[in-house]
Amino acid sequence: MDTTDPIPAPDPAAVPATPDRPTPEAVRRMLAGVMDPELNASIVDLGMVDDVRIGDDGLVTVVVALTTAGCPLRHQIKTDVQSKVSGLPGVATVKVEYGEMTAEQKARAMDRARFNAREHAEPTEVAPTTRVIAVASGKGGVGKSSVTVNLAAALAARGLTVGILDADIWGFSVPRMLGAEGRLSGADGKIHPNEVPVEGADGTPTGLLKVVSMGFLVDDETSALMWRGLILTKAVEQFLKDVRWGDLDYLLVDMPPGTGDIQMGLARMLPQAEMLVVTTPAIGAQKVATRVADMARRSYMKVIGVVENMHAFVTPSGERFAVFGEGGGAALAEEVGVPLVAQIPLEPDVSRGGDAGRPLALTNPESPAGSAFHTLATRVVEDLLPPVEMSGCTARILELATANLAASPGPTTPPNR
Ligand SMILES: Nc1ncnc2c1ncn2[C@@H]1O[C@H](COP(=O)(O)OP(=O)(O)O)[C@@H](O)[C@H]1O
Ligand SMILES: [Mg+2]
Cα of 134 to ligand 2 centre, how many Å? Predict the structure, then answer.
C-alpha cells in the first residue's frame, strides 16, 4: 500500500491574494468607476467586464465586452480602465482585451440603460461623461482652494465648461476667491449654480465656471454656524443631486481638510472621481502619504498626481527663496507612487487675487504662478484626464434606448446583472 500522501491540488478559491497583488474584487471595485459614456452607466453595472485576471508579475488583464466592436469609444474605455486599475498597489501593467457582447449580454445592458433612463437611477445630476477631480490634501492651509479655483479658471480659459463644487462646507472660500456672490436660484425643485464666464485666451471660445458653495446659501459665518446640525455628507450629496450642473467637461471638488465621510460619499456617488493631492514643500511626506493612500484605498479613488504649492518664491530679479523648504512634493509623490504634476511658486499675487475675487490664472497668466496653473491645466487636459470626446461616436445607443422608452413598457425593478 502506498503510504505517501498525495500532494493536494491547490484549490484556487483557497489561495489567498498575495499581499502585494490586488484581488480581482478590488480590480472590479476600481472598474466600477469606468463609465460607458454612451450607456450612461458603469461598465461593471452594464455587465461589460467579462474577466479579470491577475498575474504573479503584476500584470492585470481585463476583458471588456463592447456593445459595438467598432465604436471609437473603445479607446476611451481602454485608457480609463488602464488608468483606474494602474492606481491599485501591486499592479505593474494593465492589459485590456476586447470581446463583443453576446446578444443576451447586449439585451441585458440595454435593459440596464433603459432602467437607468426611466428611473433616473443615476444618483446625481453630474453626467457620466464629466471628468471629476477631487482636490484634496492631508491637512488644511496648503492652498487647496487656491489650486481648485485657479485650475478651474485655467481650464475654462481653454473654452471648457467647468463646475466647482465647494465641498468645504464650513470653511468655504471659493465664492470669495472668484468674486462670485448672490443666492443660488432654483426652479422646478433644482438649484442653479452661479455662473462665471471666463474670457477665452487668444481666440479660444469663452469658457464657463459653474459654482456651488455653502457660501451662496448662508449670509455670514454666524448663520453658517446655525447650519452646523446638518450632516456634512448630506450637504455634499444634495449639491450633487439637486444642482442642475448641465453639461460639464470637468467638475472640480474643493475637498474639506482631512479624510473621511465626505471622501467616501463622493466616491460612492461619483465613481469616476479621481484625486489630485495638494501639498507644500515642507510637509512631512510620509505622514501625509499614509493618510492620502488610506483615503484613496478606502474610497477606491485613483490619485492622479501631487501638486506642490508654495514652491520657492522667485523675486522679479530672479533671486530664489525656498520659504517653505524643498522637496515635499517630490517626496509625497514618490511615497504615494504617483507623478508630481505641478509646482506652483509662492507668489503674493495668488493670495491677492484670491482676496480680490480675481484668480491670478486669469489676471496674469504670464506670471510664474499664473503660468504654472496653466501648465497644470494643459497636463490635465492632454495627459492626466482628457475630457471625454463624444463627437467621434456614431452609435448613440442611449438615444435609441431613450427613444424606445415611450414605446415599450420596461422593467420597473433593476434588471439582473
Ligand atoms: N502659491 C501661493 N502663493 C501665495 N499665497 C498662496 C499660494 N497658495 C495659497 N496661498 C494663500 O495661502 C492661504 C491658504 O490657501 P487656501 O487656498 O485657502 O488653502 P486651503 O484651501 O488648503 O485651506 C490663502 O491665504 C491663500 O491666498
Ligand atoms: Mg480651502
Answer: 13
pLDDT score for 396: 42
- Residue among 138, 167, 168, 164 at smallest CA distance from 151: 164
Residue with CA at minimum distance from ligand 1 atom 26: 351
Q: What is the model's pLDDT at position 226? A: 57
Domains of the chain: 21-122 (3.30.300.130), 131-384 (3.40.50.300)
Is residue 394's pLDDT more than 60? no
Cβ–ligand 1 contact at 146 (below 6 Å): yes
Segment 80-84 long-range contacts (CB within 8 Å, at least 24 positions apart): 80/34, 80/35, 81/31, 81/34, 81/43, 83/302, 83/304, 83/385, 84/30, 84/31, 84/33, 84/34, 84/302
Please report the pLDDT score of residue 411 as a whole number: 43
pTM of this structure: 0.75
Q: Ligand 1: distance of its center to the CA of 142 in Å? A: 6
Radius of gyration of the chain from its Cα atoms, rounded to whole angstroms: 23
